[in-house]
């Protein structure tokens, strides 16, 4: 079997076809990865928002406890 002649238009077309197919496959895989990463980002953003809200609630409770303790301390 002889190697393909680089000046052969059929060989050039086949090589180009293979490159296009490889690039199309890569674009498809990158699109899937991008969708997956966007979903992951959306989920993590939601979790972050929930944790920030819980943190704010905890901070408010601690501040309220501190205020009550200071109030009790002043009345004793």
From TrEMBL:
Gene3D superfamilies: 1.20.5.340. The keyword Hydrolase does not apply. Keywords: Cell cycle, Cell division, Coiled coil, Septation. The keyword Transcription does not apply. It holds the Pfam family ZapB. It comes from the Bacteria. NCBIfam families: TIGR02449 family protein (TIGR02449). This is TIGR02449 family protein. It comes from Novilysobacter selenitireducens.
């Amino acid at each position: 079997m002889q190697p393909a002649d680089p000046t052969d238009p059929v060989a050039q077309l086949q090589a180009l076809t293979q490159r296009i197919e490889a690039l199309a496959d890569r674009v498809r895989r990158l699109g899937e990865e991008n969708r997956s990463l966007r979903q992951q980002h959306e989920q993590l953003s939601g979790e972050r928002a929930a944790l920030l809200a819980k943190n704010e609630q905890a901070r408010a409770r601690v501040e309220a406890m501190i205020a009550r303790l200071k109030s009790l301390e002043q009345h004793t």
